[in-house]
Design goal:
mainly alpha; two-stranded antiparallel ribbon; about 10% strand; elongated
Length: about 400
């Protein structure tokens, strides 16, 4: 800290002048002291030392409680303390006592490493009022520029989706910051618990394997495997959010006639012979196995999807003319589904503990005459369900 000692008084100085010098000297010392206080607050907040017992809401609340600083003023001190770390020139001038906390507080609202030298020049040669006026004008200009940027962001927002050559859906979204953050937050809220559970399972040492061997294997496979896990669970989370919306929305009239999980519907057209023969014969591979939008899917995928789905039986002649339409029935009724969930709880594949993304699976498929009963049903996670089919 710069030495602010008062120079030797000359005999010709009046008492008033001496008194003024003492006040400015003390003010400089208080400025330097305020700087020291803010540096301590910044470190205190960074370490979250104010939350040692979990009862204090923020560093500002701790300052209000322990130091008697009004809550609004305490919040400003925490904000300014954090801003000084990115403003080395202002920080140094404040530490030397040459500029006041009032000026620093004003400058920190708009200061950046690029413009702090200009603002510091105003602060060193002007009053606190001058600094406040410059900051207010700067904020006005920046607000206008930000409004223009916000309008541009709104005009640039878009979402594009299409299917690739493997019929995989590709979804690209470009969203404004606050909207994108909301979407990401929703996806992470659904995906994170699943990620944590699966990571715990991966980190649990296997029986009859030394801890050293397991640790080395994890170190080698962890980066790629965990990255895949992260991407998979996020994709599942997006699907889960869509399913939840379709199952609960009341805004669209076309959903109001459907109940519960029936609101989440994708129409699949498949003939009974394709399901029974598993697509082994070329003539049946993709003859009648497509979605509403005419995209073909494999018979194995159709059989997996039809394990637990609403059915509409349509009788057609050889030319495809509809002769009769049967009534729709739920393959797995709600009561049996609840009983199945209570009985199995998680995926029935040994060693798999997945309980969130699961399906009901017919041991003997209904297309082959299997009954929809508890004895013929098991819970499988979607990964093992795909493998089973």
């Amino acid at each position: 800290m710069t030495n602010l000692a008062l120079p030797p008084l000359q005999n010709h100085l009046t008492y008033d002048e001496t008194l003024g010098q003492k006040i400015t000297l003390l003010a400089g010392q208080l400025n330097a002291g305020n700087h020291r206080l803010l540096k301590l607050i910044a470190e205190f907040d960074r370490r979250k030392s104010w939350n040692s017992d979990g009862s204090v809401r923020s560093c500002a609340h701790w300052l209000n409680w322990k130091c008697g600083i009004a809550l609004g003023a305490a919040r400003e001190k925490v904000r300014v303390a954090g801003a000084l770390a990115q403003l080395p020139l202002i920080d140094a001038a404040f530490a030397s006592g040459h500029i006041s906390y009032s000026k620093v507080r004003a400058m920190s609202r708009v200061a950046t490493p690029e413009n702090e030298d200009f603002l510091l020049m105003i602060a060193q040669h002007g009053t606190a009022s001058h600094v406040e006026k410059v900051v207010a004008k700067y904020k006005s200009v920046r607000t206008t520029d930000e409004e223009r940027q916000e309008r541009e962001r709104e005009n640039e927002r878009k979402l594009v989706y299409f299917q690739d050559q493997n019929d995989m859906w590709i979804i690209h979204a470009k969203l404004p910051p606050e909207v994108g953050a909301l979407v990401v937050k929703a996806i992470e809220a659904v995906a994170t618990p699943v990620q944590i559970d699966k990571q715990k399972q991966l980190r649990e040492p296997q029986k009859n394997v030394s801890a050293e061997t397991f640790s080395e294997a994890i170190e080698e496979e962890e980066p790629t495997h965990f990255q895949d896990l992260l991407q998979h669970t996020r994709a599942d989370a997006l699907v889960n959010i869509a399913e939840h919306f379709l199952a609960t929305t009341k805004q669209s009239p076309k959903f109001q006639g459907l109940k519960g999980s029936e609101r989440c519907q994708i129409m699949l057209h498949v003939d009974i012979n394709t399901l029974r023969q598993h697509g082994k014969e070329a003539s049946h591979a993709h003859q009648h196995c497509n979605m509403d939008d005419k995209h073909w899917i494999s018979p194995k995928t159709a059989k997996r999807l039809s394990c637990d789905a609403s059915l509409v039986t349509v009788l057609e002649d050889e030319q495809g003319r509809v002769l009769n339409i049967g009534r729709r029935t739920r393959t797995v009724p709600a009561a049996i589904g609840r009983a199945l969930s209570l009985r199995d709880n998680t995926c029935r594949v040994p060693g798999c503990c997945e309980s969130r993304y699961v399906d009901a699976h017919h041991i003997e498929h209904w297309a082959d005459g299997g009954e929809t009963s508890l004895d013929n049903l098991v819970i499988l996670c979607r990964a093992h369900h795909r493998q089973m089919h």
